[in-house]
Hints:
alpha+beta
Amino acid sequence: MYEFESRVRYSETDADAKLSVVGMMNYLQDCSTFHSEDSGVGLFHLEKEKKIWLLSSWQIKIYRRPSLGETITTATWPYGFKGIFGMRNFAIYDRERRPLLLADSNWFLMDTENGRPLRVTEEDLKPYGEPGERLPMEEAGRKILLPEEMVQCSSLWVMAHQIDTNHHVNNAQYVEMAREALPKPMEIGEIRAEYRKAAVLGDEIKVFAARCPGGYVVSLQDGKGAVFANVELKEKREDEGHD
């Protein structure tokens, strides 16, 4: 397991002075990035190897969003590999080591020269050490089924602040786009995200949404109907979480 401790900053909070949803997701990707960097297989190493790890899907359970100034620990560990996919768990804990968030994710390694997925080798895995145990989360699957009838909410254009070092929209930004598409503010308890196509600077994204049991499904598409990402957001139940 790899972990780092931090304190919730004002710049990471929403209007309620709690860590925002996109802020929580940023902690997750920061943690896996730090894990790679500290294992000697970080951003610049992969750039030389002409490889890149890309996210295929998220499954996130939020129990409580920590407050401004609160000390938190973010942890991650790989737990298995199947075909081209590597599976990685994440957790954010409070000071008493109670889980604020638990997450599962699927990643794949891509050749940056030809844009094709690579089969993961022992050399790719060895720096991360022995795999850990998978979290006891219900496995939701990578793919999100879309309702037959979805309503277009808006059209967006990709802005520079949404682009990361991979030169396309960062994974957390798609979830933020989906959250902004909701008809009214909602305390989110569960997130699923399926990434299909990378949006780049200047792309137009058409946002479609529909109700689903417990929340909403949002599909982010290009002008021809090709999906950039599908996102499922479920409202937090009152009986969930740690106060």
